Amino acid sequence: MNNIPDLQQINILILIVKHGSFRKAAKELNLSPPSLTSAINNLEEKLGVRLLNRSTRSLSLTAVGEEFLNHIIPVFDDFKNVIDSLNYHKEMPEGIIRINMPRVVLDLFFRGYFLEFKKVYPDITLELYTTDRKVNIIESGFDACIRYAYDIPVDMIAIPFGSKLNLVPVASPEFIKNNGTPVSVKDLVHFRCINRCFPTGEIYRWEFLDTKGSITEIHVKGDLVMDSDVAMIQAAEAGLGIAFVYEHLVLKHLREGKLIHLLPDNNYPAANFCLYYPSRKYIPIPLRTLITWIINMNKSIF
């Protein structure tokens, strides 16, 4: 039957509607926008109906197009799941995993988790995207995200990712020589510090556990504000102030004496990241393989 559309055309339609744009859909598919226009024209011609209302300024589904998508998306998903299930019969699983995470997760865990995973599963394509902003995992087209446990939406399934992480205040020997050393966390307000900012523009208030286990927040002052631990560490090494950074990233600097750990008796309320994904009846084999990998990694941590 010549009027049956091919799966690529259906996938193109789904992505155009998802992004609300031919250009964005073309970028994801690594195709030119004109080729997508041609595909949609061909799809509409085969079906004998108009699926999209489109002009230079707007794009929307027709009533028939909306009805078509409502029926075809479950069928299309079932088709992809059947193809993906063939991975069970392959010696090595293959496919794509798209993961969103804060940039510091890549700095902290790329070598230990993702690099080793790729060595074991070379046929799985890992697409790792970093942003400190919160994302809608479904609308953004990601298979999974990594965030702190307290930032995970309640309707998601989550597993721990890595051990609990500690932040430590550090400064260079030169800075300490010129400015002295804080005796307590409250003394930090009298020192030049390197501030951390969130994507919202909000300045992070440094957190420490007091003797009773409660969290004390300190609003430090400084003339340098950043959202990158790597840059904060470089600034601290240059004597520009006290930085509050992930301990794992400065272990070498501490051993070599390039930085000094200040207030070592005052702990940060350490927390761990989690990998989370939508609650689905069917989990793609590549993602399931990664989940199993992480769970096995966790056995040596928890």
Molecular structure report:
- The chain has helices spanning 7-19, 22-29, 33-47, 63-85, 103-120, 173-179, 229-237, 247-255, 285-298, and strands at 52-54, 59-61, 95-101, 124-130, 144-148, 156-165, 167-171, 192-196, 206-209, 215-218, 221-226, 243-246, 260-261, 271-278.
- The protein is elongated, with a radius of gyration of 25 Å.
- Strands 4-3-5-14-6 form a five-stranded mixed β-sheet, covered by helices on one side. The protein has a three-stranded antiparallel β-sheet with strand order 12-7-13.
- Helix 1 (7-19) crosses helix 2, helix 1 (7-19) crosses helix 3 and helix 2 crosses helix 3 (33-47).
- The relative contact order is 0.14.
- The protein is of the alpha/beta class.
- It contains nine helices and 14 strands.
- The protein starts with 6 loop residues before the first helix and ends with a helix.
